[in-house]
Every structure is written in C-alpha cells, then in structure tokens.
Amino acid sequence: MITDKIKELEATKAKIASLEKSIATQLQDELSQLPAQYGFATVQAFIKAVKAAAGGRRKKGKGKGKAAAKAGGAQKRTRATITDETRAELKKLAEAGKSGPEIAEALGISLPSVQNIKKALGLVKARK
Hints:
With 128 residues, the chain is mainly alpha-helical. It folds into 2 domains: 56 residues; 38 residues. Helices cover 68% and strands 0% of the residues. The longest helix has 36 residues. The model has no long low-confidence stretch (mean pLDDT 85).
C-alpha cells in the first residue's frame, strides 16, 4: 500500500522534472526567436530597443520602489521647507484638536514631519 504510493510519488516527480525541462527548452527557443520576430538583426539591437522603450536603464538598489511608483503614475513629492510660520500654524492646528494626518495635509508636509515638530514643541504626551 505505502510502497505503491511511494512509487506513484516518484513517477509524479519524474513527470514534473520532465515537464520543467520541456518548458525551459521551449521558453529558451521562443525567447531566442524574439529579435527576429520584431525585425532586429542582433540580440544586442533588440535589447537596446527594449531598454529604450522601458525608459532606459534602471537604478540599482533602493530606487526600485521609486521606479515602480513613477511607472504607476505617481509623482515624486518635492521636499517641504519647514519654517517658523509652518511650526506656528502646526501648533495652532494641534491645539485646535486636528489630527496628525489632517495637519499634514493642511500644511503640505509629511506625517512624520508633523510628529517630529509636535515632539519638538512639546505637544505630545510622554510614554509611561
């Protein structure tokens, strides 16, 4: 009983390995034909065209998330300048009972900036 199941499992594993090899071979064949299908004489010319269509070279490292955000239509925010007037307005809004996200939106600054300024102004309760 159990030996039959083991044999069946081994046969299934062999079939999976065969299918994976077949898929890899077929994929490689299809990929190697792409440049010719699109009228390019060399693979290098095809790669250059693909990079140009994708917007050139991507930056390595931390830029991956930003590149993905830009591709989705999001624009990079400009850095906000925190002035004494901004701090005074933040203090007034905080004392009026506005929440952090409301203050951030009203002043055009990030929520972490709001939190840092509130902390500097002593507007947050100390943790116990």
